[in-house]
Write a structure and sequence with these properties.
single chain; alpha+beta; 3-stranded antiparallel beta sheet
């Protein structure tokens, strides 16, 4: 038995490179969608997120820097070394040491009565003090030894990041605020097995609010950077997925397979009974 079969297969020979739209979108979100000829709202969406994120980063960082300069100027005007030394040496008034029938002189107010503690400020010495102490930089733990020179002009504070954090965060430094002598107050905080005394002052609270506003802007900038990075990644992945989907759909509808063969007929001396044509698409 002789069976002759012939076939013609037509396929799309266009090669799809998914890496191209991926790289395009990683560089500029939405560009891969344009390459895939997707609806304009898609590249427009990714481009809008890109522009919005970049604007948010720029604005938040600029605003945070402005607020930082403002709270630092506020601290420079309202916190000084002499106030801190004077208040810490004298300590809270005797009447204020009694809170709800309990004596806090050695407990809740202890941090306000010591120059040394868990943290310290850095002092910069000039003039004769450099020769006396054989150093230009010295810890505030030694402030009591420097008390006679506080108004000499040879002692200044190193106003670095730690300084601006410490004076607002730790009770050890509350005495340096301008309103420390007459306007400080406390709040009790239940921490489970004990009561914690929180020392507060109007100037200090104002300062903390200003710092928090600046930190919130920095947080906004961080979230905006995260959004920016995710926008690039999601745009790239979406471009690859769409590119592959479109390639599969095109292959499905444009691929045509044909089969042309002779039909066998035993009653025909030549054995040919006709032609068979099959089309698959």
């Amino acid at each position: 038995e002789k069976d002759t079969r012939s076939g013609v297969i037509e396929r799309d020979t266009k090669i799809v490179y998914p890496g191209k739209p991926l790289i395009m979108s990683l560089i500029l979100p939405g560009l891969g969608q344009l390459h895939n000829k997707e609806p304009l709202w898609k590249p427009g969406l990714f481009a809008s997120i890109e522009v919005g994120s970049m604007f948010s980063i720029f604005y938040a960082n600029k605003k945070a820097d402005e607020l930082r300069r403002e709270y630092q100027e506020f601290a420079d005007d309202n916190w000084n070394l002499f106030n801190w030394w004077s208040f810490t040496k004298n300590g809270p008034t005797s009447d204020a040491q009694w809170v709800n029938g309990r004596h806090y002189a050695e407990e809740g107010f202890k941090a306000m009565r010591n120059f040394s503690g868990t943290h310290h400020l850095t002092l910069y010495l000039t003039g004769e003090l450099v020769n006396i102490f054989n150093t230009e930089l010295i810890s505030s733990d030694s402030l009591d030894m420097l008390s006679n020179y506080l108004e000499s002009g040879d002692i200044s504070l190193v106003r670095d990041r730690h300084f601006y954090e410490n004076i607002g965060k730790y009770d050890q430094f509350v005495g340096g605020w301008r309103d420390a002598r007459n306007e400080w107050y406390w709040q009790e905080k239940d921490v489970g097995d004990s009561i914690e005394i929180l020392i507060k002052k109007p100037y200090k609270e104002n300062y903390l609010v200003q710092r928090e506003d600046s930190n919130q802007m920095l947080t906004l900038a961080k979230y905006s950077i995260t959004t920016l990075l995710f926008n690039h990644v999601i745009s790239g992945l979406e471009a690859v997925w769409t590119s592959q989907r479109m390639a599969r759909e095109k292959q499905k509808y444009e691929t045509i397979e044909t089969d042309l063969s002779l039909m066998y007929n035993p009653n025909n001396p030549a054995g040919i009974g006709g032609l068979s044509l099959t089309i698959n698409f």
